[in-house]
Amino acid sequence: MIDLTGKIALVTGSSRGIGRATALKLAQAGADIIVNYATSQAAAMELAQEILSMGRQVYVIKADMGEEDDIDCMMDFIKENIGQLDILVSNAATGGFRPLLKSKRAHFHTAMDINVLSLIFLVRAAYPLLAQSQGRGKVVTISSHGSHMALPMYGLIGGSKAALESVARHLTLEVGDHVNVNVVKAGLVETDSTRKIPFSDRMFAERDTKSMMGQRVLEADDVANTILFLCSPLSDLIQGETLTVDGGSAIHV
């Protein structure tokens, strides 16, 4: 059993979906949790109450991961009021499903700012605390199959996820002596966000056909279990890797 007692974990975009499942999973393992949200305050507070009911400490911070100043202010709060950070899960991401040929400069910058640059800014600000973690600091970020395959209306997001995987490897080169940086590439999980993807019904049907897990479908908890592993000492020798969790869907046509 993974025991994270005494650890402090920040999960960005944790008010719903995979972020919410991850925050709960880390709390169940004993970690105290910093819940981050941008707009979904009610959902964030509901999550905080659930974590408190486990006997964990919880902090709720509103910060937009697309804004460098918000990230720095959040990290200043953590340094001044908590003084510890052992785990950083960079989960917050943006959608914006549209054809590439209808994309504008602002759409590109939004996708890159939230999906890629936020990881750099978070690690930069959090590194002093992560490097002081007993054992090793842990950084995990979330990618998707759009990083390596073409999906309808997903060009900017997929491009940003490909960039994210590369950035994570290069971050490992810079901070890997003290911190583990890894990526979880999640298959299609039904969340508020993925239900908005154009042709999502067809994509979910194809996922169920291609999965090699019988009637079992990929859920947010399955992704959270993998993140939990990468946040634990069991993953100390895993560095700069992208770990796919999709029930085998992407290994065959």
Description:
- By secondary structure, the chain is of the alpha/beta class.
- It has one domain (about 10-245): 3-Layer(aba) Sandwich (Rossmann fold), CATH 3.40.50.
- Helices cover about 40% and strands about 15% of the residues.
- The chain has 7 helices and 7 strands.
- Strands 3-2-1-4-5-6-7 form a 7-stranded parallel sheet, with helices on both faces.
- Helix 5 (about 155-175) links the parallel strand 5 and strand 6 (about 180-185).
- The protein is globular, with a radius of gyration of 17 Å.
Produce the secondary structure layout.
Layout lengths: L7 E4 L5 H12 L3 E6 L3 H12 L5 E5 L5 H14 L5 E4 L14 H26 L6 E8 L10 H21 L3 E8 L13 H11 L9 H11 L11 E4 L8
Task: List the defining traits of the structure above.
alpha/beta, 42% helix, single chain, Rossmann fold, globular, 253 residues, 7 helices, seven-stranded parallel β-sheet
Provide a quick synopsis of the model:
The protein contains 7 helices and 7 strands. The protein has helices at residues 17-28, 41-52, 68-81, 105-130, 155-175, 200-210, 220-230, and strands spanning 8-11, 32-37, 58-62, 87-90, 137-144, 179-186, 242-245. It comes from Polystyrenella longa.
H/E element sequence: EHEHEHEHEHEHHE
CATH topology: Rossmann fold
Query: What Rg is obtained from the alpha carbons, in whole angstroms?
Result: 17 Å
Strand content: 15-25%
Chain oligomer state: single chain
Q: What class would the helix/strand composition place it in?
A: alpha/beta
For the termini, the CA-CA separation is 36 Å
Indicate the low-confidence ranges by residue numbers.
none
> Tally the helices: what do you get?
7
Task: Count up the domains.
Answer: 1
Please state how the strands of the largest beta sheet are arranged side by side.
Answer: 3-2-1-4-5-6-7
Mean pLDDT: 94
* Secondary structure: helix percent: 40-55%
Query: What's the CATH H-level superfamily name?
Result: NAD(P)-binding Rossmann-like Domain
Biggest β-sheet, characterized?
7 strands, parallel
The general outline is globular
Count of β-strands:
7
CATH class: Alpha Beta
GO molecular function, one term: enoyl-[acyl-carrier-protein] reductase (NADPH) activity
InterPro entries: NAD(P)-bd_dom_sf, SDR_fam
Family: Belongs to the short-chain dehydrogenases/reductases (SDR) family.
EC number: 1.3.1.104
